[in-house]
Amino acid sequence: MTRDGFPKDEPLFRRLAVIGVGNLGSSVARAVRKAGNGVTHVAAYDRDPAVRARLQELGIVDSVHETAGDAVEGADIAVFCSPVGTYRAIMDEVAPHLQPGAVLTDVGSVKMAVVRDVSPLVPAGVHFVPGHPVAGSEKSGPDAGFADVFRGRYWLLTPEEGTDAGAVARVEALWSRVGAIVEVMDAAYHDKVLALTSHLPHLIAYTIVGTAFDVEEQERQDVIRFSAGGFRDFTRIAGSDPTMWRDIFLNNKDAVLEMLQRFTEDLTALQRQIRWGEGDKLHEFFTRTREVRRGVVEAHQEGTSPWAPGANGGKPGSEGGNTK
Amino acid sequence: MTRDGFPKDEPLFRRLAVIGVGNLGSSVARAVRKAGNGVTHVAAYDRDPAVRARLQELGIVDSVHETAGDAVEGADIAVFCSPVGTYRAIMDEVAPHLQPGAVLTDVGSVKMAVVRDVSPLVPAGVHFVPGHPVAGSEKSGPDAGFADVFRGRYWLLTPEEGTDAGAVARVEALWSRVGAIVEVMDAAYHDKVLALTSHLPHLIAYTIVGTAFDVEEQERQDVIRFSAGGFRDFTRIAGSDPTMWRDIFLNNKDAVLEMLQRFTEDLTALQRQIRWGEGDKLHEFFTRTREVRRGVVEAHQEGTSPWAPGANGGKPGSEGGNTK
What we know:
Two copies of one chain form a homodimer.
Chain A (H helix, E strand, L loop, with lengths): L14 E5 L3 H13 L5 E5 L3 H10 L4 E3 L2 H5 L4 E4 L6 H8 L8 E4 L5 H7 L8 E3 L1 E3 L20 E4 L7 H12 L4 E4 L2 H27 L3 H9 L5 H7 L4 H10 L1 H23 L3 H20 L26
Parallel strand pairs in A: 1-2, 1-4, 2-3, 4-5, 5-6, 8-9
Antiparallel strand pairs in A: 7-8
């Protein structure tokens, strides 16, 4: 028996299908293969022929299929890794091909909308366990993924009440074996917390990069040249896939708008303090936010790189942040 | 002759004084010593006795002084590395101790206010060359600095018209020899561009971290635990020194408020697009911001760590950004 309660010599899943093979899809394929946890076949589908061709070259999956239906045929588990706005159409297509007992999961950043779109279409006997790895990078495409991206990162599962406990446990075990810290939580709570930790930061980053872009040419070039002063951290986030992020914002609208409202209020308060030269209040506020940073560092979620959290062992300046 | 036009065997400066020895001050001391560019003595002053004691232990400077006046005594160049709000008081103290022909410079993130505060107090025969290295990390204190932090980074100089050209050239050469790309520019332009690339990003980061802090305890812990989704990049920036940043905002008020106004308008537009489900507009905007990211990467200002820009040679995901 392994720590997750499943016998080591008994595979959790034998055939896994990845639907949508960008950065995350290819990371899932690579991670599952590297873990060698009983999966003997990784089938893949991507709607982009160029990606399918590239997958053949990369050799990170065992078979590449022309349709999502073909890819899930005979699979014990299917993992949706395309933008969340595509799930409903994909479900329509794959539903007749999913075998009884199969598990369906995903890696989407929003969960309420996914449950809303997918659950009604899940065939009887198929177990739907929505999921979200809080990991990845801003780069796109199958070349951008890597096997260790989930190591030390949280992988959140949001199954509805009444979901087959065995299916949930097997999904938990699968992602634990690729190095993730798996937690089960409520979908609404997930969406609220992620609106704050991920969706709002991305929206802000996109905005500030856009603001910086709307200046005259000379200034724009200097904004890029002097980006090490803080701006470049925002450009990294704002370099993420446009389709994926459009779908996230449209599908977690309420939580994002609520957090945005709070943010705007807080920003307005700071703006006023700057305008009126209230240095003490600014100082007090900046001191408080510093505590949050300490919390992040202590939670070991500060790593320089997604595949090696905390690998720098406290080397000075190892987090790469330029703050001037 | 070296590339900067100064004879290699003739030192640019012999005795250098660092006033304020936190992260940047200690980096200046370390960098100058490592470069071995003729400086034979680094004198240091910090108003904090604990920092002075630590400097004795670290051995990164040649002498530690109880007053700023003592530290600049006999110095060919003095470098102000304390928060910009302290400059005026320090100038009052050091002015009588600066020898004719000495050069005065600084590393502050705002330049108009520095010129306003310092220039009137500069004694005749002393050359004031305001400066700003676009480098550093969010960590504070003399242990946080390192010699190579300026390598490949911009170091901007904003001397007033009529400043002794020889003095400017020697400061340029000094920082070039620690690896920086030195550029001379107008102080007002500097403050405007840096408001966009550094001050506004910091303000936004402080705000969002504050917003995330004002939730109930359980949620706050989860915000920290799931911070790899984008939030942690903001916490890093928001972990910067509160005094330094208070002084920056108060001393670049006009440019910061103007950029903040533009940002708020842009954010409001995005907010409206999300509320009304205008996916096409969102997608178009996110595609445009991605181009800016490409520009930053192409300008080689994207490095994972301040002392090794571009050292990752394009390893997948090497920029450490988690975007989900």
